[in-house]
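Data deposition worksheet. Section B asks for the primary sequence of the deposited chain exactly as it was used as input, without tags or linkers unless they were present during the calculation. Section C holds the resulting structure in C-alpha cell form. Section D is free text for depositor observations; keep each observation to a single sentence. Incomplete worksheets are returned to the depositor.
Section A, Depositor: J.P.
Section B:
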Amino acid sequence: MDSFSSPSSGSSSNFSSEDLMGQLKTQLAQAYAEEFTVRGKCFDKCITKPGSSLSGSESSCISRCVDRYIEATGIITKALFSMQR
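Section C:
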C-alpha cells in the first residue's frame, strides 16, 4: 500500500489539509534525497570503462539519463502539488 492509499480496513479516510501537506513534504524530501543517487545510477548505466575522460557516447548517455531524471522529478512534483488542491 502506498502512502496515499486508504487503510486496509476498507473504510475511506479523509485527509485534512495539514495531513496532506505533511505527506507531500515527506514525499518531496524523499524525491530530493533520491536525486543525489541519480549520479550513481547514471554512472553505473553509462560508464562501462572508467578512465581519465568520458567518451562521446558516455557523455551523451549521462546527459540523457540526468535529463530524464530531472523530467521525472518535475512530473512527480507537479502531480503531488495537484493532489493538494
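Section D:
The mean pLDDT is 76.
The domain at 18-83 is CATH 1.10.287.810 (Helix Hairpins).
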